[in-house]
Amino acid sequence: MLRNEKIVVMGEDITVPGVWVVTKGLVEEFGPERVRDTPMSESAIVGAGIGAALTGMRAMVEVRWADFLFVAMDQLANQAAKLRYMSGGQAKVPVVFRQALGAGLSAGPHHSQSPEAIFMHIPGLKVALPSTPYDAKGLLKSALRDDNPILFFEHKVLYRSKGMVPAEEYTIPFGKADIKKKGKDVTVVATLLMLHRSLTVAKELEERGISVEVVDPRTLVPLDKQAIIDSVKKTGRLVIVSEDCKTGGVGAEIAAIAAEEAFPYLKSPIKRVSAIDTPIPFSPVLEKYVVPDEKRIAQAIEEVVK
Amino acid sequence: MYRKMLTIRLFEEEVVKLFSRGLIPGFLHTYIGEEAVAVGVISALRKDDYVTSTHRGHGHCIAKGADINRMMAELFGKGTGYCKGKGGSMHIADFELNMLGANGIVGAGLPLACGAGLSIKMRKTDQVAVGFFGDGASNEGTFHESLNLAAVWSLPVLFVCENNQYAVSYHVHKASLVNNLAERASAYGIPGITVDGCDAVSVNDAASQAIDRARKGKGPTLLECKTYRWRGHYEGDPQTYRTKDEVATWMKKCPISLFEERLYATKIMTKDSAEEVRAKIRKQVEEAVKFAKDSPYPEPESAATDVFA
Predict the structure, then answer these.
(1) What is the interface pTM, i.e. ipTM, of the complex?
(2) pTM beyond 0.90
(3) Alpha-carbon distance A148 to A125, whole Å?
(4) What is the domain count for chain A?
(5) Mind listing the pLDDT tens digit for each residue in B34-93?
(6) Interchain contact, A51 vs B113, CB within 8 Å
(7) Which domain, by its residues, includes A52?
(8) In the list A214, B74, B109, B202, which could disulfide-bond B52, CB 3.0-4.6 Å?
């Protein structure tokens, strides 16, 4: 925001302390013109972000809970995603929508979804999902310099995580996966919280002689297909671990890509580890059952390695 | 204003003919009968003011100064169209004129108009944004959210309701207990005005005042224009929801004829010069058709471009 005075930030309750406040300190530094609390009007807020982006500004809209994206779905899917295309390239829509997805806080069915696959499926939207603080800074800076509408998904459980973040300026390009752990027996593609669970499992399996390579795509659109294919060429086995529900999920798309483009290298069927096809329930014991845990991830890896 | 209204009328009449002959694919929503609204409002704007439009957007485009050659080509689906054939009738836009596009989703242009208003405010210019919408859209959530947001942020937006009595087939009196939709403005604490949408001068007067208010930082206004579309919601609409008598009654209030009467009465124009203007515009429309017919279709592979900047 220092670098670009045309950035405007808006969202509900973003200037006050709350459940989590990523925008802490912003209004104090940049003032209420550039950092705006809004009435409770998701369509208007999302649409105003788009309209401002369309007319010379760069907008960052905090929708806060990924589940609330559905309240503004027309503005996202029919307007932001399509304005450039439908206008034959006349329009430019530099807007970043930031929201937290994911389960683990017993927040219930309307506050725990992982809808990233739905947005991956809409041409015209870019999708980023940083799993570490380092990735979050680099990707957000890139997002704020990108002239396209971007869905920037953060995982609410990971807000408490800590990691090394360089103080200096750096960006991470979209479409560049990160190999978070090198290995040679099986490729695990994992995102967000599942990435961390996969790394935990990979460490344990290492001690049992299974060498797991963990690939973090970091962005779903554009997706670093090549990194995934190269890894599968090396290991011959693929497990995709994603917190969204199985049917039509992120795993489904990545599995299809691998089946189409890396088939000769596969030594065993591809496996997806996803949430079961239900809304996310509230009670901790139920929530735990729905979402993949280390046990299920380990099971899947062991099955493909057999 | 006369030339602009006539251009809309003659353009739309020609497009209706071309559509019936199968030269224009897809769907068509004509602005015939409503010319005074687009022209009355937009004549009060500057070139750098923003407009967001509806599915019935040809009138707004022409009033804003769009090139009818490129409009016609877009309707034909040719590569020389405003949107390279990717948008069609419901998505024509000319961003150089700050005409941010017709829209296939009812009410969707209103949040975008708020965004334009926000952008104006932050860049500290004295531009304004106009969001057009219909009586149908006044029941969409986006209408209420947008008016409220523009009100609390004091955005320089003029919301223009083209109340043509019908939302597709649904009569406005069934859709709302409120007779004059402009009354809804008071729910948001902003001024609301109802005018005769067949009288370009009334529309222009009311719009000018609202635009002036917005430019001076005094915030948004809701302007309701009572009007009527002479043809169906879309070309091919059997229009079983209204009587031929009703249509005939409204056609007697032709906004162009009404304006002509004014011009004759004040001796600004004679019947002969009116005929000259008509002939000239007819020729321009013919040229637009020729341009569209002679233009090539876009390369099929171009369908894969312009997704991302």
Answers:
(1) 0.95
(2) yes
(3) 7
(4) 2
(5) 999 999 999 999 999 999 999 999 999 999 999 999 999 999 999 999 999 999 999 999
(6) yes
(7) 7-160
(8) B109
